[in-house]
Amino acid sequence: MTNLSDIINVLPRMKSGDSLITALEVLPEYNSEIRNKDTSVRLMTLSDLYRVYIPSQMSLEIYSKLYLALLRSMQKKGTKLAVQQQNQNYRAIIQQEYSGIMGGSDSFTIIGTSGIGKSSAISRAINLITENRVIEADNPYIQGCSVYNCAMSV
Predict the structure, then answer these.
(1) Half-sphere exposure of 47 toward its Cβ, with a 13 Å CA cutoff?
(2) Do 11 and 5 form a contact (C-beta atoms < 8 A)?
(3) pLDDT digits over 10-58, tens only?
(4) Concatenated DSSP letters for 59-120?
């Protein structure tokens, strides 16, 4: 599957600007009646605070990087280079002699201070990019692309 228009049709549309911020954001519903509930119910409802996610500039950049890396990764599936890379990776896994694992432009690193939300941003981006489903392509070289594997291999 090297035709970019075919790949774009398989993936959800890339979001940007305010629509991306709104899609990444998680704000649980607030019910003002909770104030009148029993103490245990109020305390349990406090756990909703852990679901709040307000995207930062880092979140937007991670989303864009992952989306574009997934596009590039899917675009090269089935190419001669991708088959060679798969063979080299298999040799490495079974501990045979191999000439190195080949990478490409679909690789990057996310570095930052502990606790700034890197993992949360990655999780939100993957859920948004994939809409929690497996991406499948008709090309015979691609039986199905597990979104986690495609996105997290970057």
Answers:
(1) 4
(2) no
(3) 788 899 999 999 999 999 888 899 999 999 999 999 888 888 999 999 9
(4) HHHHHHHHHHHHHHHHHHTTSHHHHHHHHHHHHHHTT---S-----TT-------TTSSHHH
Q: Tell me phi and psi for residue 18, to 5 degrees.
A: -65, -35
Rounded Cα distance, 114 and 25, in Å: 21
Return all residues near 149 (Cβ < 8 A) that are at least 6 apart. none
Q: Considering only CA atoms, which of 56, 106, 37 is closest in space to residue 76? A: 106
* Angle separating helix axes 57-76 and 118-130, nearest 10 degrees: 50
pTM, two decimals, is: 0.69
Question: What pLDDT digit, counting tens, does each position of 97-115 carry?
Answer: 766 655 555 678 899 999 9
- Token pair 């890379």 is found at 85
Query: What amino acid occupies position 68?
Result: L
